[in-house]
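FAQ: What does the model actually see?

It sees only this:
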Amino acid sequence: MARLADYFVLVAFGPHPRGSGEGQGQILQRFPEKDWEDNPFPQGIELFCQPSGWQLCPERNPPTFFVAVLTDINSERHYCACLTFWEPAEPTQEAVCSEDAAGREEEAAEGGSGRLSPGTSGPPGQLFAPKTLVLVSRLDHVENSLGLIYTIHVEGLSVGLETVVGNLLTCTIPLAGGSQLDSVEDGVRTISLGAGDRQVIQTPLTDSLPISRCSVALLFRQLGITNVLSLFCAALTEHKVLFLSRSYQRLSDACRGLLALLFPLRYSFTYVPILPAQLLEVLSTPTPFIIGVNAAFQAETQELLDVIVADLDGGTVTVPECVHIPPLPEPLQSQTHSVLSMVLDPELELADLAFPPPTISSSSLKMQDKELRAVFLRLFAQLLQGYRWCLHMVRIHPEPVIRFHKAAFLGQRGLVEDDFLMKVLEGMAFAGFVSERGVPYRPTDLFDELVAHEVARMRADESHPQRVLRHVKELAEQLYKNENPYPAVAMHKVQRPGEASHLRRAPRPFPRLDEGMVQWIVDQATAKMQGAPPAVKAERRTTVPSGPPMTAILERSSGLHGNSARRLEVVRNCISYVFEGKMLEAKKLLPAVLRALKGRAARRCLAQELHLHVQQNRAVLDHQQFDFVVRMMNCCLQDCTSLDEHGIAAALLPLVTAFCRKLSPGVTQFAYSCVQEHVVWSTPQFWEAMFYGDVQTHIRALYLEPAEDRDPSQGWEEPAEEERSALDVASEQRRLWPMLSREKQQELVQKEESTVFSQAIHYANRMSYLLLPLDSSKSRLLRERAGLGDLESASNSLVTSSMAGSVAESYDTESGFEDAETCDVAGAVVRFINRFVDKVCTESGVTSDHLKGLHVMVPDIVQMHIETLEAVHRESKRLPPIQKPKLLRPHLLPGEECVLDGLRVYLLPDGREEGSGGSGGGPAVLPAEGAVFLTTYRVIFTGMPTDPLVGEQVVVRSFPVAALTKEKRITVSTPVEQIPQDGLHLRSCTFQLLKMAFDEEVGSENAELFRKQLHKLRYPLDIRTTFAFTQGSAHTPGRPPRTTKDKGPSLRTLSRNLVKNAKKTMGRPHVTRKKYNPPSYEHRGQAPEDQEDEISVSEELEPGTLTPTSALKPSDRMTMSSLVERACCRDYQRLGLGTLSSSLSRAKSEPFRISPVNRMYAICRSYPGLLIVPQSVQDNALQRVSRCYRQNRFPVVCWRSGRSKAVLLRSGGLHGKGVVGLFKAQNTPSPGQSQADSSSLEQEKYLQAVVSSMPRYADTSGRNTLSGFSSAHMGGHVPSPRARVTTLSNPMAASASRRTAPRGKWGSVRASGRSGGLGGDVGSRLAGRDMRGPPQANGAPPDSGFLRPQRAALYIIGDKAQFKGVRPDPLQQWALVPIEMFEARQVKTSFKKLLKACVPGCQDFESSPTFLRSLEDSEWLTQIHKLLHVSVMVVELLDAGSSVLVSLEDGWDVTTQVVSLVQLLSDPFYRTLEGFRLLVEKEWLSFGHRFSHRGAHTLAGQSSGFTPVFLQFLDCVHQVHLQFPMEFEFSPFYLKFLGYHHVSRRFRTFLLDSDYERIELGLLYEEKGERKGPQTCRSVWEYVDRLSKRTPVFYNYMYAPEDTEVLRPYSNVSNLKVWDFYTEETLAQGPPYDWELAQVSPEPPEEERPDGGAPQSRRRVVWPCYDSRPRAQPDAISRLLEELQRLETELGRPPERWKDNWDRVKAAQRLEGQPDGRGTPSSLLVSSVPHHRRSLGVYLQEGPVGSTLSLSLDSDQSSGSTTSGSRQAARRSTSTLYSQFQTAESENRSYEGTLYKKGAFMKPWKARWFVLDKTKHQLRYYDHRVDTECKGVIDLAEVEAVVSGTPTMGAPKTVDEKAFFDVKTTRRVYNFCAQDVPSAQQWVDQIQSCLSDA
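And it is asked to produce this:
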C-alpha cells in the first residue's frame, strides 16, 4: 500500500524581503511537520505554487488548479497539486513583516467573524492576496481532495478541516497492479475523508505503463500530426523541447502526453512541465530537456538558438535552423502518419465516397488518446523488434549487467545508415531501456508481449489499413483497461462549492489548523499501520519472451552483389581446393571468389568454411595455402566498417589467431600479422562488443551442463532454436537467486567475476596481436589508423574513475624499451588496451585488485609479443622452397584435437592381399606415402600410393587410440629408396594395422615422442582424461583433468555420498545434487512406460532392514527415483517382474519384487541399485546370502518368460563355503563354521524362495520347505551330500528334451522321490553330445508320483570345478548342472590369434599358415559355438517351464554373455533397436561387466591386456542374425558399429566397470539434463538415435518378426561364418563407424591434371579394400530412399524422414495383398517353412555336379555328430520329415504311456512317453505327452524278443522288480521299467501282439 498524499501545505502571500513590488510565497503551515523517513519534504514548493510570481490582485479571481511536477535527486517525481484562491489582503499586509501577518491570521481565525461582517464590502482600493493549498504526492490522484477542503472552507460545512487533512495524510491506496489483486475492492480503493464524500481511486493494472488520461489526444488536437511526430523524434534524439501556453494545466498535459508517447523508453533528462518565472535561466542549460513555460514569458525565450519551441495555444512548432531532427526511417514514417490520420480523422477515408454512411462512430477523447498511444506502441515494437537477440548478458549475479550489441542490431535490421535509430540507440533513454527491460526475469507488460509475439502480424497487416486499425483498437482497449480497470465502480461523490462562491464575501480567511490534532490523527494511523503486516508488492515476475529473431525493416536488394547460391558454392569450392592442396584449381577460382566477397553472404560463408577447417584441426597451413587464406581474409575485412555491423570481423577474429604456418623450428607466423591494416581493429566499440559476447558465452556455460557449452568462437552463428539462450539461463538463475545460501551466492559472484577477468586477459592478448605490426618500423600505421591516435585524447569510456590515464603514462619509462620508435608503438598500444580493460572491467564489476593486476600485466604482454614478432619478421624474409609432396590433413571430429602433427611415413602392406593388388585384382594402393597424425581420439594415416600407375587416390587408415593392442619398433625398407628405416608396428582391436616406416626427415626423437604420446593417450592415468570426457572442451591430454567444480558440485556430492554410504549402514542420508535433481519418482514423466501405478516407491521398507525407523529418508527416496529410471527398472516393468513396495502394501500375489536393498551399492558394488528378488525374502537376509557368492553377486532375476513364466537368474560363482561347501560338509563341525552355516542356510532358503515363487511349483499347503534337508545337511552330521548333480563328462549321454511339460502342481520335496533322469539329459546336451545306442533290459519298482513330468524346478548352471565331489540328490527341486566354459584368459589368447589370422602383418604368404588354418588355431569359432550351444539349451529349459540360474565365473563375463543371448533368443523385444539397447544397458552396463578392465582403458589396467568379452557376444548375435535375417530390426552394421565404439572411448557409455563407478564419476544421471542444440553426443545410444533419424544405416529392411518366435540357431562350427567386421577395410576413408568422417569423402589433388577438369562420366571403378561397396553401390531400398529425398529437395519440399516413407510403403504393400485373400510369394514361402526355422528356409547348396536349390526342413536341433549308419540316419530323417507335416494327435497311436528307459552305456534312466504304432510297426518315444517331435524310434521289424528284466544301477528305487522288462533287437538291448507290475505286463502283451500281427 502507498500513501495517497505525503504532505499538505498551506502557502500564502508574503512580502518580498528586498521590498520590491512583488511578493513571495510563504509556508504558513505544513502537515506533518516532521519529514517522512522514506520521502523528505521537497524544497522550493513556494515557487511552483505561483509560477508567474506572487502578486496581489485588485479583484477576487476564481480558484485555479494545476499540477506541477518536481523531480528529486533520486529522479523520483513528486506531483504537487496546487489549488489557489484569493483572500482580501490587509492594507498593511505589504508593509508588515511576515511574522505579524501570521499572528494576525491567528487572531482572525479566533475572532475574525466579528470584525468582518458578510454584508459589508471592502474599501474601494481592496487588494486580494493569493493563498494556495498544496498536496504533495508521489501518485497522480489528488485533485478532488483539495477541492473538498476548499468547499468545506467556503461553504462553511460543519466538518473539522483538521479531520479531513488528517484523514487525507493517513489514507493509503493499493499499489499498482489491480489485475493481480484478489478482488475488485482490492484494485479500486474507495476513500472518504470524513466530509460525507466518496472518492474512488483506481490504480493502474501495470505501473510500468504511463497514465495519460486525455493528454495525448489533446496534444494532437493542439499541434497536429506532423508537429507531434517532430517533437517525438526530437525528444528521442535528445533535443531541447519547450512548450508555451497560457494554461498551466495544458503545459502539464502536453508534457505528460509527450512522455506517454515515448514509452517504453523513459525520458531521463530535465523534465519540468511548469517552470517558475524565477527559474527561467534553466533554459540555457546545455543538456536536453522538456520544459513548459507560461506564454507570458515568450519574449524571453526568443534568444534560445537550439531549443525547439511548441506553442500549444497557436498550434505551431518552431525548429531553429541549426537543429536537425532526424525523421523516422521509411517506411515507418509514412505508415505511422497514415495510421494517425485514420485515428484522428476517421471521416477522411470516407470523404470522397459518393454515398457516405450516415453516421460514423467516433471514439471518445479518452479512447482516442489510447488509440494514438497504441500507434506509437506499434511503432516501437517495429523499431525494436528482435532487440533481445542483441543483448549481451555480462553478469547475472549479484545484479544483472547487460550490454546491447548496437552494431549487430543495426546490421541485421538493415539500418546502418539510418541517423534516427543510430541516435536513439546511443541515447540515454535507450541505455535505461536496456538496463530496465533487458533484465531477463521481471514483470512483463504490454510492450514485451507486443514486441515478442505480434511483429509478424504487424508485417502481414502493413498493406491492409483496416486490419491495422483493428489492431490499434485492440491495443487501445488494453491501454484503457490499464487506466480504468473497473469503470463500473467509478462513482465519485465529492462536494463542490456553489456557483460564483468565490465572489461572496468569505465568512473568514482560511483558518489556521490545529497542528496537535492533525498530528494525533497521523500518529494514530501510523501506529495502526505498524501493527499491520507490511504490504508487499505482488510482482509476477516471469522470463521475458525473446520473440522471433530479427529481420530487416525494409528488404533492400544488394544490387550487383546479390549472392546467389552459385557464388557461395564457388567460395566453398575454392576453400576446399586450398585445403586439399589443389592449388591450380584454387588459382582458377580465386578472382571469382574475390568478386563474390563483396557480398555479405559470401563473407559469412567464408568465415563459416574456415571455421570448420579450424574445428578439424587443419589450421597449420603450408606457404601457398597460407597466402590464399590471408588474401581472402583481407578481401573480407576491407569492406568492413569500424562498427562491423555484420559480424564478419567478429567471425574472423578467432580464425586469424588460429591459422598459421611454420617458418622454421620454433617460429610460427599467424594470420593476424597479415590482416592488421583494417580500421575495425582500432575501434573500441568493436572490441567491447566482442568481449561482451564472449563473456556471455562463458557465463552461460557456467550455469549449463558441460554438454550444452557452445564454442565461444562461433560468434557468427545464430543460436539454434532448441538451444537455451543466455537470457533464458540468466532468467532461471535470477529466479533461483533468493533461494541460494549466502555462501553459494558469494561463490557464484566470484566465479562470474573470475570469468570476466580471464576474458579480459585473453582480450588483452588478442588486441596486442592485432595492434602490434609485424615490422615495428611501421609505427606510422598505428598513428594513421583511425581511432588509436584520437583515443589517446578522448576515450569513449563512460567510466570516470579510470586508472588507465594515471598508469599508462609511466609505461614508456618503466617498460625499458631501447628503441624510441618501438617505444612509441608499444606505448600507444598499451594505452589503448588499458582504456579498453578499464572500461569493460569497471562495467562488468571486476574487483579493483584484479584491475590493478591487469594494468601491470598489459605492458608485459605487449613486450613479449614484440619479441615474438621480431623472430617471425626475420624468418618470414627467407621462406624455404617447397620440396616434399604436401601432407594431406585428415578430417577430424568436432572436439578432436591434434596432439602430434603429421610425421612423414610410408604405410606398408599389412598382409591382406586386397590392398596390395594381390590375387583379388585391383590396384596396389599400398605402400603409400603420407603422414601419421596423433589426435586425442585416433591414430590416422593419410597419404597417396607410391605406385604412380595407381593415380592420386587418397589412402586413409585410422583407428581409435584406445583400440591399440600392440605397439613395437621395427626396422623396414622404405618402398621407394629401399633404405632401411626405423618403423612402428601398431595393431588395434578394431582390426586395423599400421605398419609404418618413418621418412628420413623424421628424427628418432620425433619418432620416440610419437611413441610416448601414443602410450600416454592409450593408457591415461585417469579415465576422465580420455577423449569421451575431453571432447568439446579445450582440454588436451597433457593437462591434468578438470577439477570437480567444473562437473557441478551437486553431482560430486551425490557420488561421494553414495560411495561413502556403500561402506556404512544403509540408512544414512546423503546430500543431493543442487544443480540437477533427478525428478522425483512420483512426478516423473520421462518415458511412456514409466507409469506410476506400475512401480510405486513406498514410504516404508521392511522393519529392521534399513533404518531403525524403517522409513526412506527424502534423500534416499531421490536416489531411488533416479534408480527407478534406469534401463533395468524399465525392463522389469515391461516383464511384469514385481513392484517396489513395502511389506504393508505388498501384493502377495506377485511372486517377485524390486528390492532397493542395494541402492547405495553397499551389498554388491557391481550390481545395479534395484534388484529383482523373491517376494518372500526380506532385504536383511540378502546381505547374508551375498556372502556365499563371488564378488557378493548373489542370484537375482533378470528375465521372465511370458509364456512359461519360468525365470532366468544370474549370479557369480559359489564360494567354497556356499552350497557346495555345505554339500561337502564333514561330520565334525569346525569352530568357525557357524557363520558359514547360517549364510548357507540363508542361501538355501533363498533358492527355495525362488522355486516357490514360480507359479507351477508353489505348494498352497506350505509344505514345500526343506526342513528335512536342512536338518540333515546344514548341521554337518550327515556325511553324504545328496544334491542332484548332472555331469557333462559322459560322452554317451542321451539327447535332451526341449518342449513344454504339462502344467501341474508338484508335491513336497520329501514326498517326491524323483529320479535324476533329466539332469543327466541337460548335462549331456550342454556337453554337445547326442548319441543313440542299443537298449539294455532292466526292471523298476512302482511309484505313486511316477506319471508326473520329471523335471527340476530350477537348474543351476555352474563351473564344473565348483561342483566337484557332489553326488546327485533326487529329493531336491533344483539340479546342479556343471559345465566347462572357457576363461577370460582363453578369450584373450584366442582373440590375439584371431587378430593375427585376419590381419597377418607380413606378406610372406608361403611360410605363413593359410587364413583358414590360422582361424581354426585361434579357436575363436569354437568359443562362439560353446556360447550359442549353452544359450540354446537354457532357452529350451526356460521354454519348457524350468527356471535357470547361470552361476559362472565371477558373474560378469560368460554369465553376462549367456543370459544376454538367452534373452535375445527368447524375447523378440530384444531384437529391436530399442530392446537391444535396453538389453546391453541392463545386462552389460548395470550388472557390471568390467568394460574398463577388459578394455585396459587406463594405466592400471595395462597389465591385464585386452579381453573382448563384449565383442564375442556381438559376434554371437551376428551369427544368429545371419541365420534369422528377418527377426532383427537392426542391421549387421549396427553390431559392427557397437563393436567398434565399445573400445573407441569416443562415447562414455562403455567406460568404467559398474553403475557404482559411473555414479562416483558423475556419469550415470548426466544425460537427463535439458541438453539441446548441436553438441557432442556423450552416449552411443544418443548418437545412434540422432543418426537413425537421418539415415537408415542401422535399420534392417528384411525385418518382419513373429511375436512368439523363439530362435534356436544352429551352433555347429560348420554353421558359423567369420564376421566381416574382422576382415573388411575401406582405405578411401578409414573405418566407416564415425559417420561424420565417412560422409566427408576426401578427393585427391588434381594439380597435375592437364585440363584441370573432372571426368564427365558418373561411372567409377569400385576397388576391393579401397572403396566402400555399400556406399558406392547401395542396396535398392536405400537407393530409392535417397532418390526420394533428392527429388523432394529439388521440388522445394522439406524432405520427410526416411522412416516415415518406409513405413508408408510397407503399409501400402500390406493393403495390396489383402483384397484377393492371397499372400505374396514370399509369404507363401515363409508359411511353408516350419515355424521355428522360418527365417532359414532356403539354402543354395553347392554339390559336386551342380548346384541344387533345396528347401531345408530338417529341424533336428542336435549339434553333435551321429555314429549310426546311413540306414538309420535315413530312417530318422524320414520320420523327422513325417513329423513335420503330421501332428502327434493325428497319428495312429495303438497304445501309449510312460515308461522309464535306460540310456546307452553309462547313461542314466529317463522317463519317456512311449507310443506303440501298429500301422507303421514302430515303438516311438517322446520327451513328454504333448511333445510333437519324436526322440527315437525302435523298429519292431528288428525286435527279436521281449523278456522280463532286472533293476540296474540308477534305476527307480520304489518300483517292483517285476515291472522291469527288456526288448532285444538285432543291434542292442533296450531296458524298460513301468510304473507298476500290471502296466509292465500290459506293455509286454501289446508289443507281443504287434509282433505276432506282423
